[in-house]
Amino acid sequence: MSSHLATLPASDLNTVAVAGLAGGVPGLIADLRSDHAGETGAVAIYLGILAVSRDPQVRHFAREHLTTERAHLAQLGALLPPGQRSALLPLWRVAGWFTGFLPALIGARAVYATIEAVETFVDHHYEEQIRKLPAHGPGGALRNCLMAWRWLVGSGSALAVKAARRV
User: Fold this and answer.
1) Quick check: is 7 in a domain?
2) What pLDDT digit, counting tens, does each position of 63-110 carry?
3) Whole-angstrom Cα distance, residue 36 to residue 87?
4) Which residues does 162 contact at the CB level (< 8 Å), separation at least 6?
5) At what angle do helices 108-132 and 89-106 cross, to 10 degrees?
6) Residue at 2 is within a domain
7) Residue 59 belongs to what domain range?
8) If we measure between CA atoms, which residue out of 115, 106, 124, 120 comes closest to residue 64?
């Protein structure tokens, strides 16, 4: 591995950098494949919510999170070549859309409870991956990226819990 990967900022992560890391981190490509599939589903969740909800607070929440999830999906797309992505992406899009759409039919509490459950799962999923990556060196940038996403997921879960308790 080249020494420049050791100081690679998260913004410079790409398929070449990941390919260099993959040999030293067992399961890295599979993990990123599942992350990409999850972000694909997350985008669809918020699209499903927006398709049916008329609640201004829920719509605002969904639009903000949709923007964030689209950014995550784009970042993961830059790390994982199309040939290494899940063949089940169409299924994840449909499943994600219904995961947002159905609770939105019921109301805000159902939406926030669903988001909390999904984000709690994602938080644990990223934590497992973060533990595999070294804190420094070539995996450090990817670890930092996943830690930042985990923080955003935790913040989103906390917000969803607060909203569900009030609405």
Assistant:
1) no
2) 999 999 999 899 889 888 899 999 999 999 999 999 999 999 999 999
3) 11
4) none
5) 140
6) no
7) 12-166
8) 115
Q: How many domains does the chain have?
A: 1
* Residue partners of 23: CB distance under 8 A and separation at least 6: none
pTM of the model: 0.82
CB atoms within 10 A of CB 44: 23
Distance separating alpha carbons of residues 114 and 104, to the nearest angstrom: 10
Q: What is the 3-state secondary structure (H, E, C) of the chain?
A: CCHHHHHCCHHHCCHHHHHHHHCCCCCHHHHHHHHHHHHHHHHHHHHHHHHHCCCHHHHHHHHHHHHHHHHHHHHHHHHCCHHHCCCCHHHHHHHHHHHHHHHHHHCHHHHHHHHHHHHHHHHHHHHHHHHHCCCCHHHHHHHHHHHHHHHHHHHHHHHHHHHHHHC
Cα–Cα distance measured from residue 11 to residue 29, given in angstroms and rounded to the nearest whole number: 19
Please check whether residue 1 lies inside any domain of the structure. Answer: no
Burial (CB < 10 A; 0-12, 13-18, 19+), residue 113, is middle
Which of residues 160 and 40 earns the better pLDDT score? Answer: 40
Which amino acid, one-letter code, is at 75? Q
User: Which pLDDT belongs to residue 4?
Assistant: 32
The answer to the question of residue 74 being in a domain is yes
In the structure encoding, which two tokens stand for residue 154, read together? 């935790």
